[in-house]
Design goal:
- The protein is α+β, with helices and mostly antiparallel strands.
- Among the domains are: 138 residues, Gyrase A, domain 2 (2-Layer Sandwich), CATH 3.30.1360; 75 residues, Elongation Factor Tu (Ef-tu), domain 3 (Beta Barrel).
- The chain is built from 8 helices and 20 strands.
- The strands form 4 sheets. A 6-stranded mixed beta sheet has the order 11-12-13-10-4-14.
- The protein is globular.
- The mean pLDDT is 97.
Length: 369
């Protein structure tokens, strides 16, 4: 029996506009449009790409007793976060960890005082909610029934400000409600491309008219999950299920910045979250492997699961994401490499293209700070 594939709210519009669909995380999703992945990627880098990411799970979280204190205490027991000094209306990145410190999912959270908005990855949405409900019995976790789009690129601000001028006043990771075509739309200035831009939650009844209005601007072009993947890889952003997973920790993945100092050893709220023992030990002593960026001068695509070899020909790691960068014109990779090792080649069938480590990101991020 074939698994049930979910449909996103605007599937009909995407088909009308020529989208090529494919399965992703249990959803039938637009992968690319007639212009093609590379054109969509480069348009996002130069103007503004519009991505439908309605497969992502949007949660509205509150305490059953209605207090901000209970909400914050509950989430701090479940996640490595600290609400102390966290301004209302600011979004932060965090993790849902297992008891071994592995990343069950990576999350985006917005502090709204007595409520929190959370975005979880599509493939984990039901498991995430079940795990959070079990960890936080005093909190309610309700799905937000809305479409979700991302408007990304250097022209995103100018485009969105034509619909609501207050969009221009937002800075990176800030959240607010915008009025778009008469509808209240919860919006964050963030995204998954490395470009400036916004993620916009659209009320279902208004979603199509808002998207059509945005697409009427010549600076905006639709972009699918294919371009979203190449853009995020150029920005050095990990993908859950590839670069981070229940068997990788935030420290191994180079994501320690998201663990507040207060949750580390000696902090006011040290530990106290699932997987804390592993995470704090790795912060203190270093992990046995780490996620690194690699680039190849050879015109041979190097994909996930390719083995990495050192100068002696020994395997020292494995590629987790790889593509030929549309911006750089060279193969780029994220890979886990043993601590202290230096890969010099990748094993691609019977070929051995050269690789070397480079600092992340591959393409500079252009967030509006």
């Amino acid at each position: 029996m074939s698994p049930i594939v979910r449909q996103i709210p605007l599937a009909g519009l995407h088909r009308e506009l020529g989208a090529k669909f494919g399965p992703f995380a249990g959803y039938d999703m637009p992968i690319q449009y007639p212009a093609g992945l590379k054109a969509e990627h480069l348009h996002t880098r130069s103007q503004a790409g519009l991505f439908d990411v309605s497969h992502m799970g949007q949660l509205h979280i509150r305490a059953r007793d209605g207090t901000a204190q209970s909400l914050q205490t509950g989430l701090q027991a479940a996640l490595p976060v600290d609400f102390t000094g966290w301004p209302i209306g600011l979004q932060k990145y965090s993790f849902l960890l297992n008891d071994a410190g592995g990343i069950e999912d990576d999350l985006m959270l917005v502090n709204l005082g007595d409520t929190v908005r959370m975005v979880v990855n599509a493939g984990n949405r039901d498991a995430d909610r079940a795990r959070l409900v079990a960890l936080c019995p005093g909190l309610s976790f309700d799905w937000v029934d809305a479409a979700l789009i991302a408007l990304q690129g250097p022209q995103a601000e100018a485009v969105l400000a034509q619909l609501d001028p207050s969009a221009a006043a937002m800075s990176f990771m800030q959240a607010r409600e915008l009025m778009l075509e008469g509808a209240r739309c919860f919006t964050t200035r963030s995204g998954y491309t490395g470009e400036d831009g916004y993620e916009i939650s659209l009320p279902s009844q208004a979603a199509e008219s808002i998207v059509r209005r945005l697409l009427a601007d010549s600076r905006v072009a639709l972009a699918g999950l294919g371009a979203r993947d190449t853009l995020r890889l150029e920005a050095g952003l990990p993908l859950h299920g590839n670069d981070i997973s229940p068997t990788t920790s935030p420290v191994e993945a180079g994501l320690s910045f998201a663990i507040p100092k207060s949750r580390r050893a000696g902090g006011a709220l040290a530990g106290g979250f699932p997987g804390a023992a592993t995470v704090l030990a790795q912060l203190a002593h270093g992990p046995s492997r780490k996620l690194v960026g690699l680039i190849s001068p050879d015109a041979i695509p190097i994909r996930s699961h390719a083995s990495l070899l050192d100068a002696n020909g020994d395997s020292v790691g494995e590629v987790t994401s790889g593509t030929v960068s549309p911006t750089l014109g060279k193969p780029i990779m994220l890979a886990y490499v043993s601590a202290g090792a230096q890969p010099v080649q990748a094993a691609v069938r019977d070929r051995r293209p050269a690789v070397h480590s480079v600092p992340l990101p591959f393409v500079p991020k252009r967030y509006k700070r």
